């Protein structure tokens, strides 16, 4: 009974933390649902930037790349190396788009939050910020990662995938089940906590010491934002590779 209640309680916990808020927020009412408009607006902007940049960079591909095409191919090769390292030489190919989409969305979102003065865009309530500054976004990305590695393991091994929960001994069944719930929890809170903390620190320093002092902290925030995107994508690829290789 306790084992059955645990997943239900965990899902309820995820639902409760989706209501975590800092400051005021702007909402849209769509049908009978309340939608967090700030997150949707900034997410659409980030997606538009990614799609627009990729389209412009490869609209006239050259055999010998230069300029924007060279940069896009460098990013693609970086994502391929990351996926190949974590998932494996034989299995990594189909997962490059997913890992790349995660990395680029988080990276651009984090940098947009640190570089773009969202405060100049006025809203009825609150102000715009990085999409990853909202717990709903990071939980959604973490749950997508969980679905991805379940799908990878199940398609590779079929029902035999669930045998990993009783390895190396059936006594570890509760712990192995717990692991699948702690993975998205740690992924979501790590990203959300680091981005929120960085923005709060910069905001406090700007209000207290508006000149000179906040600038090094902002540069440090850019560095840590990139590192957080890399960590999230690396862990997502590692979980997918682990699900296909077996329990370690």
From TrEMBL:
Transmembrane segment boundaries: 35-58, 95-115, 135-154, 191-213, 219-240
Subunit structure: F-type ATPases have 2 components, CF(1) - the catalytic core - and CF(0) - the membrane proton channel. CF(1) has five subunits: alpha(3), beta(3), gamma(1), delta(1), epsilon(1). CF(0) has four main subunits: a, b, b' and c.
Matching Pfam families: ATP-synt_A (PF00119)
Membrane topology: Multi-pass membrane protein
Keywords on record: ATP synthesis, CF(0), Chloroplast, Hydrogen ion transport, Ion transport, Membrane, Plastid, Thylakoid, Transmembrane, Transmembrane helix, Transport
An annotated GO cellular component: proton-transporting ATP synthase complex
InterPro entries documented for this protein: ATP_syn_F0_a_bact/chloroplast, ATP_synth_F0_asu, ATP_synth_F0_asu_AS, F0_ATP_A_sf
Organism per entry: Metasequoia glyptostroboides (Dawn redwood)
Gene behind the chain: atpI
Function: Key component of the proton channel; it plays a direct role in the translocation of protons across the membrane.
Protein name: ATP synthase subunit a, chloroplastic
NCBIfam families per the UniProt record, alphabetical: ATP_synt_6_or_A
Subcellular location, record wording: Membrane; Plastid, Chloroplast thylakoid membrane
UniProt KW Thylakoid keyword: yes
Family the entry assigns: Belongs to the ATPase A chain family.
GO MF annotation: an example: proton-transporting ATP synthase activity, rotational mechanism
């Amino acid at each position: 009974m306790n084992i059955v209640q645990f997943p239900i309680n965990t899902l309820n916990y995820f639902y409760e933390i989706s209501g975590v808020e800092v400051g005021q927020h702007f909402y849209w009412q769509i049908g009978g649902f309340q939608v967090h408009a700030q997150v949707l607006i900034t997410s659409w902007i980030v997606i538009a930037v990614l799609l627009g940049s990729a389209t412009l960079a490869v609209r006239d591909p050259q055999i010998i790349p230069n300029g924007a095409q060279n940069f896009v191919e460098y990013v693609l090769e970086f994502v391929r190396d990351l996926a190949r390292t974590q998932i494996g030489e034989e299995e990594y190919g189909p997962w490059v788009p997913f890992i790349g989409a995660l990395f680029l969305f988080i990276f651009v979102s984090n940098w947009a939050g640190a570089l773009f003065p969202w405060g100049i865009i006025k809203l009825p309530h609150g102000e715009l910020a990085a999409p990853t500054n909202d717990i709903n976004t990071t939980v959604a990305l973490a749950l997508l990662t969980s679905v991805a590695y379940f799908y990878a393991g199940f398609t590779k091994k079929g029902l035999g995938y669930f045998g990993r929960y009783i390895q190396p001994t059936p006594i570890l069944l509760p712990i192995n089940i717990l692991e699948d719930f702690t993975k998205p929890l740690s992924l979501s809170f790590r990203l959300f906590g680091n981005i929120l903390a960085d923005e709060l620190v910069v905001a406090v320093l700007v209000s207290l010491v508006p000149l000179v002092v906040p600038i090094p902290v902002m540069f440090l925030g850019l560095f840590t934002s990139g590192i957080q995107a890399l960590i999230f994508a690396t862990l997502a690829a590692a979980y997918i590779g682990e699900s296909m290789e077996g329990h370690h």
